[in-house]
């Protein structure tokens, strides 16, 4: 009996050792699976710069159910109908066709914009209020319709149309030439620094503020700098068409690129750094107990609801490279349209229409770039955004107006040496694209590693399949007895070695 008890204790000890070895092996396998999954996820993240699924699952705003965030569609409809009833039945008519035309146009615009603010779908931005971005989208549609109407007019009629906005418009304006005497210190003049003083005007502040805003909407200083330098080359190339592009070398590269554009870009970089490090945790206004906290929350309403860093990665794929090139060309055309529209429609540089247009271009561009980045980065996004569609249509229509109304100016040929430089630049860009994305395209692209862990026998080693108790094996013995004999023969070291060899083989396969 003592021998049997000792044998049973030995068997129990062996089983316990085998069980511990099994638990340790399973723990190691789970740890290895977790490690390989982390590697796979890290490689998958190379394709996307933002977790778009997590962004969709976020709650939009804690104040969303409040009165401030509702659309109030019925209320707006009733107010608009009351205004129309007052105009039609109560107000005394005015026998002035020009006054009635202006007033009817403004009323129709107000009706359309209010309709857009009420029923149009929300865009990607929430702050300070979604209705602001619905308003900009509705106004963008109106602006595109107005551009299409102007496109079908003659230059004379289009300039007369602007007189309905301001009677001072529609008159020829002289083009200011910023070139001429380019000496920094002119000793022959009473004021030797008159050249620098003449070049320093309000447009320097506009340049700096503009590139600060561009850096924020692009969220990338490199792309903004490329646009800044390329536009100076465009000014060099087109100064024979518009005298406004004629500038001194130090005006181009020191005042514009380094001081104004570079200063605005640096301010934008610091702003982006602050926005990326800021903690975005919002509480409802009525949940904050102190007045100081409520005031801080009120001004916080004019800051972003959240922040996404734009990782454009232009060299990561051919599609992204083409997209970045098209974005750069599109923004350069938008900036050229600013100068050519003033020239063909006779709009003075200091007129209010210019900053208003630039403000809306900035708002449209911010939404457009956000939608474009999601189209490039989000694998579940497969269509162009609404604001991007309208923005592209606006830029193209403005360009067509500039070409049609300023045909004699646009068709002035480039000087030979400038044309050769642009041909060389285009050829180098095409050559780089072919070499980078065709000739040097890698044949093997690392793919995320798969979780292919097999629990059981080690690879390339025959294993005898165990039967269940009561089953008869090939030798005519009970399978349960055979299993018990095998369990008694094998100790814990053999079990640990089994799973160690298995893990090594699996690592090689992975």
Element layout with pairings:
Layout: H1 2-44, H2 52-57, H3 73-90, H4 97-119, H5 130-151, H6 155-162, H7 194-199, H8 202-218, H9 221-238, H10 249-277, H11 291-300, H12 318-345, H13 353-377, H14 386-405, H15 407-410, H16 416-439, H17 479-489, H18 492-509
Helix pairs in contact: 1-18, 3-4, 4-5, 5-14, 8-9, 8-10, 8-13, 9-10, 9-12, 12-14, 13-14
Mean pLDDT: 79
Which overall shape is indicated by the principal axes computed on the Cα atoms?
A: extended
Give a short account of the largest sheet: none
Count the helices. How many?
18
Structural class: mainly alpha
Q: Could you list the spans in which at least 5 consecutive residues all have pLDDT below 50?
A: 42-47, 444-493
Q: Rg, please?
A: 35 Å
Count of β-strands: 0
Give a verbal description of the structure.
There is one protein chain. With 510 residues, the protein is an all-alpha fold. The protein is built from 18 helices and no strands. The chain has helices at residues 2-44, 52-57, 73-90, 97-119, 130-151, 155-162, 194-199, 202-218, 221-238, 249-277, 291-300, 318-345, 353-377, 386-405, 407-410, 416-439, 479-489, 492-509. Helix 9 (221-238) packs across helix 12 (318-345) and helix 12 (318-345) crosses helix 14 (386-405). The protein is extended, with a radius of gyration of 35 Å. Mean pLDDT is 79; it is low at 42-47 and 444-493.
């Amino acid at each position: 009996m003592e021998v049997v008890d000792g044998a049973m204790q030995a068997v129990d000890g062996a089983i316990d050792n085998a069980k511990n070895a099994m638990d340790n092996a399973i723990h190691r396998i789970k740890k290895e699976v977790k490690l390989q999954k982390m590697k796979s996820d890290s490689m998958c993240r190379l394709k996307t710069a933002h977790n778009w699924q997590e962004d969709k699952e976020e709650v939009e705003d804690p104040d969303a159910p409040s009165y401030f965030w509702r659309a109030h569609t019925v209320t707006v409809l009733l107010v608009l109908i009351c205004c129309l009833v007052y105009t039609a039945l109560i107000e005394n008519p005015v026998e002035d066709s020009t006054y009635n035309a202006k007033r009817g146009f403004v009323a129709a615009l107000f009706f359309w914009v209010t309709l857009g603010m009420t029923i149009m779908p929300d865009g990607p931005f929430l702050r300070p209020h979604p209705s602001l971005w619905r308003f900009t989208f509705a106004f963008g549609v109106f602006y595109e319709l107005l551009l299409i109407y102007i496109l079908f007019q003659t230059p004379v009629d289009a300039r007369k149309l602007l007189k309905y906005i301001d009677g001072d418009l529609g008159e020829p304006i002289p083009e200011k030439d910023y070139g001429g005497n380019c000496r920094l210190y002119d000793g022959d003049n009473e004021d030797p620094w008159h050249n620098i003083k003449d070049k320093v005007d309000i447009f320097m502040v506009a340049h700096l503020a503009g590139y600060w805003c561009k850096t924020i909407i692009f969220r990338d200083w490199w792309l903004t700098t490329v646009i800044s330098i390329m536009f100076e080359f465009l000014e060099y190339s087109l100064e024979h068409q518009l005298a406004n592009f004629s500038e001194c070398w130090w005006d181009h590269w020191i005042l514009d690129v380094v001081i104004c554009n570079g200063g605005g870009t640096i301010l934008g970089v610091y702003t982006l750094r602050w926005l990326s490090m800021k903690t975005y945790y919002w509480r409802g206004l009525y949940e904050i107990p102190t007045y100081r906290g409520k005031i801080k929350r009120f001004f916080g309403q004019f800051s972003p609801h959240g922040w996404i860093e734009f990782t454009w990665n232009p060299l990561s794929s051919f599609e992204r490279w083409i997209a970045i090139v098209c974005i750069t060309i599109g923004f350069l055309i938008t900036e050229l349209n600013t100068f050519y529209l003033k020239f063909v429609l006779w709009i003075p540089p200091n007129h209010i229409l210019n900053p208003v247009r630039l403000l809306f271009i900035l708002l449209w561009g911010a939404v457009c770039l956000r939608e474009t980045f999601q189209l490039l980065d989000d694998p579940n996004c497969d269509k162009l955004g609404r604001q991007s569609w309208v923005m592209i249509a606006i830029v193209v229509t403005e360009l067509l107006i500039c070409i049609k109304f300023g045909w004699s100016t646009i068709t002035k040929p480039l000087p030979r040496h400038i044309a050769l430089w642009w041909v060389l630049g285009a050829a180098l860009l095409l050559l780089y694209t072919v070499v980078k994305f065709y000739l040097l395209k890698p044949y093997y692209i690392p793919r995320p590693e798969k979780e292919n862990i097999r629990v059981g026998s080690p690879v390339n080693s025959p294993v005898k399949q165990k039967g269940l108790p009561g089953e008869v094996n090939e030798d005519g013995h009970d399978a349960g007895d055979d299993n018990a004999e095998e369990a008694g023969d094998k100790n814990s070291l053999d079990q640990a070695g089994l799973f160690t060899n298995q893990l090594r083989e699996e690592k090689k396969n992975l």
